[in-house]
Amino acid sequence: MKTAAPDDITARYHAIMTHCQQYAGADTQRSIRILALNFFLFFGLLALMYFARGVSYALVLLLAIPAAFMLVRLFIIQHDCGHGSYFKSRAANTWAGRFIGLFTLAPYGYWRREHDVHHAFVGQIERQDVGYIDILTKDAYAALPPHKKFFYRLYRQPLVLLVLGVPLHNIVLMRIPPLSRRRWDGRHFLSFDDAWKSIMAHNLCLLAVYGTAAFLLGGGAVLAIYLPVIVMAWQIGGWMFYVHHHFEDAYWQGGEDWHPHAARLMASSHYALPPLWHWLTGYIGLHHIHHFSSAVPHYKLAECMQASPDLQNMNRITWRQSLAAVWLAIIDPAAQKMIRLRDIVS
């Protein structure tokens, strides 16, 4: 039987949830305007990159930076569609999410259900490897043989994990469906067969779209333009997702010690960024609100926080603190902290 949350945690949880529910649900006209603006800016920047090739590839790479941020914003819209919060119609959310997936390269059905696992079990040690970045507890790391400790330390290096690993996973490895039914079933919200269908159908659509683009514009041009955009977009998105759940006091518990109320209060950060940076990243840095109510679309997150002093002060981390968080690679459930590998490495 799961341990009950303390009364003060439960009361605070319900108070914040009640507040967030006032901002739940889509404003259809606002959603359409934002989606249209994002596609206009995104495709406009890609067109500028195409014509800039004749001037300087350095200019192409410079233009790839704002284009990557626009792609991040499109992914946040796809993310809202996955939660059913961007449009009122379920069908509109599904088809918009699938269409945006042609540019983010995220297979919508597969990604959506993996992300649902992350939301349902946020902060739970046993489920952290589904829809999230692998992270070990202090005891689990200590029990590894030396060669596996080496590979874990290598995996958790920021350059490997965030600069190389996230783009590699989302651009290349997400094209590969699950290989073991036995390891899959029972741990995911999507069946093994449906995961195959989602990924392979998405791959066929990508082949058609980018094959057509390569035929019309040239394969070299498509690669030179889109590769830096998609790589940078996933690096930015990977960094944001990392910061959302990697901070010193982040809630991580297992077994009967885990409780959903405590997890929603303490497992997700409020990334305190300047307004422009929040806009560029689709306000997803207000991640603590998103985990309280995924029914709040991204364009209402700031309004929701501004109306609640409790949300303004909750789990707040600054840019400087987020830089230090890249070295937090171990969960210490007893201390209720995330710690650095060098604090325990032997």
Topology record:
Layout: H1 7-21, H2 28-52, H3 57-82, H4 90-104, H5 108-120, E1 136-137, H6 138-142, H7 146-155, H8 158-172, H9 181-184, H10 192-217, H11 219-245, H12 260-266, E2 270-271, H13 275-280, H14 287-292, H15 301-306, H16 309-313, E3 316-317, H17 319-324, E4 328-332, E5 337-340
Parallel strand pairs: 1-4, 2-3
Antiparallel strand pairs: 4-5
How does this model look, in words?
This protein has 346 residues and is mainly alpha-helical. It has one domain. It contains 17 helices and five strands. A three-stranded mixed β-sheet has the order 1-4-5. It has a two-stranded parallel ribbon with strand order 2-3. Helix 3 (57-82) runs antiparallel to helix 4 and helix 10 (192-217) packs across helix 11. The longest helix is centred in the last third of the chain and has 27 residues, at 219-245. The chain is globular, with a radius of gyration of 20 Å. The chain starts with 6 loop residues before the first helix and ends in a 6-residue tail after the last strand.
Fraction of helical residues: 55-70%
Query: C-alpha Rg, in Å?
Result: 20 Å
Number of domains: 1
Number of strands: 5
Strand order, biggest sheet? Answer: 1-4-5
> Total helix count?
17
Structural class: mainly alpha
Largest sheet: 3 strands, mixed
Q: What portion of the residues fall into strands of 2 or more residues?
A: under 5%
Order of helices and strands: HHHHHEHHHHHHHEHHHHEHEE
Coarse morphology: globular
What's the overall average pLDDT, rounded? 92
| N- to C-terminal distance | 37 Å
Unreliably modeled segments = none
